[in-house]
Amino acid sequence: MKEGEMDNNLADCLLKFMQYMEGKLITREISGWKGWDDRNQIPDAELMVRLKKNLEERDYVDVANLSMFLWYRNRLFTLPVSR
């Protein structure tokens, strides 16, 4: 494996996990769930409560999705990504 490359098993795991995340997001969006990107519709504190509940229930896909929403809202994506 070259520097900067991901192990094949890890890459496969990441792809499958992202597909589960996407599937849940699509299902929620179809059912009318909105506001993930709007603090006026769903405050950060509410997302945190949901995140903790899902963590306790071991629903790691929803934990990841809720973490992504909070990450997006706080604009952490503007930080440089090291590879």
Main sheet overview: none
The low-confidence parts are none
Number of domains: 1
Number of helices: 3
Overall 3D form? globular
| Percent of residues in β-strands | under 5%
The Rg value, from CA coordinates, equals 15 Å
Number of strands: 0
- Return the structural class: mainly alpha
What is the average per-residue confidence, as pLDDT, rounded to a whole number?
A: 89
Percent range of helical residues: 55-70%
Oligomerization state: single chain
Alpha carbon gap, first and last residue? 14 Å
List the secondary-structure elements in sequence, H or E: HHH
Secondary structure layout:
Blueprint: H1 8-30, H2 44-56, H3 60-73
Helix pairs in contact: 1-3, 2-3
Structural account:
This protein is mainly α. It has one domain. Helices cover 60% and strands 0% of the residues. The radius of gyration is 15 Å and the shape is globular.
